[in-house]
Design a protein that fits this description.
Elements: H1 2-12, E1 17-25, H2 32-42, E2 52-58, E3 60-64, E4 69-73, E5 89-92, E6 96-103
Parallel strand pairs: 1-2
Antiparallel strand pairs: 1-6, 3-4, 3-5
């Protein structure tokens, strides 16, 4: 994330990041509290030192090829709520994406 912020700062010519907004999929296996801790440590003495980290959670979704329905999923190992099949295709919730920066 720091590499992305620094590369963007060189391109857009800003020197201070006040807020970082990221999207994390519920199925991504990223622990928000651990990410917040790591963010604060890694961003020390950089242009994002003391920046606020906002985390938006993207719900998990999967498509069942047997039923042809899309279900919400809280785990990669949830069965289809309709037919109980485990043959699901994740369609949303694995992503981790830098969404927005507030800069000066």
């Amino acid at each position: 994330m720091l590499d992305l912020i620094e590369a963007n700062a060189r391109h857009e010519t800003y020197s201070l990041v006040k807020r970082v907004r990221i999207e994390i999929g519920k199925l991504s296996c990223v622990e928000p509290d651990a990410l917040r801790f790591a963010f604060d440590v890694v961003m020390q003495n950089t242009l994002a030192d003391n920046a606020r980290l906002d985390i938006l959670t993207i719900p998990g979704q999967a498509w069942c090829p047997i039923c042809g329905i899309t279900i919400e999923s809280d785990s990669l190992y949830d069965p289809c709520s309709s037919c109980q099949s485990f043959d699901l295709r994740v369609t949303q919730g694995l992503e981790t994406r830098l969404k927005e920066l507030d800069v000066e």
